[in-house]
Design goal:
single chain; mainly beta; Immunoglobulin-like; 4-stranded antiparallel β-sheet; 2 helices
Length: 228
């Protein structure tokens, strides 16, 4: 069972130890700063009381597989077949879960592009302290328990390995002569190309909204995104 935990402001990198108990400690409530310390805008409508209420224990649960498939048919993903699709799984990676409060809704609406989090607008630093976290196993499985009903944002950032081929010019040419009769003919020059196999990786950032119901288990499936 994965309990809610208090996460640090940089949620994809670090997380404070210890599960949440009775009361929250932190700074005084107030309006979010217009800009964070990096000069990026901060989402509006931060309300700690709303987040604390969303953190109360419930009977809902979330089970899923974190990973990604390519909507554009990008070949060569080094993954497995999940529900008939080739999926690059996020093995041993962190999955974050945040209740969709007004602050989160504003942040997600201003930041997301087809499920991908751009992070051009930041969350209030205190908001990350309310994020639940779960670490995936080798097959990308993760779970959250004790959730109240409502909408939640599932976040994860991981590396997607892939293989492919590239074609390049060698600088050489293949000359062909086509005889047309009576000493007349045509020369054609075709560039010589070389095909190489390669391996590489790209970063994927998933941001999907799920609906949790009281006493029910919600299933999360790897989303299909436009990978570049």
């Amino acid at each position: 069972m994965h309990a809610w935990k208090l996460c640090a402001a940089i949620a994809f990198a670090t997380c404070a130890s210890g599960a949440m108990s009775g009361s929250m400690a932190g700074t005084q409530d107030g309006g979010p700063p217009a800009r964070d310390r990096d000069g990026l805008p901060v989402a509006e409508h931060f309300d700690r009381a709303e987040l604390e209420q969303a953190m109360a224990l419930g009977s809902g649960a979330l089970r899923g597989v974190m990973g990604v498939s390519n909507r554009e048919g990008f070949g060569g993903l080094l993954g497995r077949i999940v529900h008939g699709r080739q999926v690059a799984l996020a093995a041993h990676e962190w999955v974050l879960l945040l209740p969709m409060t007004a602050h989160l809704q504003d942040w997600h609406a201003r930041n997301s592009r087809e499920g991908v989090i751009e992070r051009e607008v930041r969350l209030h630093p205190e908001a990350w302290r309310f994020a639940g976290r779960s670490r995936t196993d080798a097959d990308g499985n993760f779970s959250f328990d004790g959730l109240r009903p409502g909408r939640y944002l599932v976040l994860s950032s991981f590396i997607v390995p892939f293989r492919g081929t590239r074609t390049s010019l060698t600088g050489e040419y293949l000359y062909e002569y086509e005889y047309a009769g009576l000493g007349v003919g045509n020369y054609r020059a075709r560039p010589v190309t070389r095909v190489e196999r390669f391996s590489d990786a790209m970063g994927a950032q998933v941001g999907e909204v799920v609906e949790i119901r009281e006493g029910a288990v919600t299933t999360f499936a790897p989303p299909s995104l436009a990978l570049y």
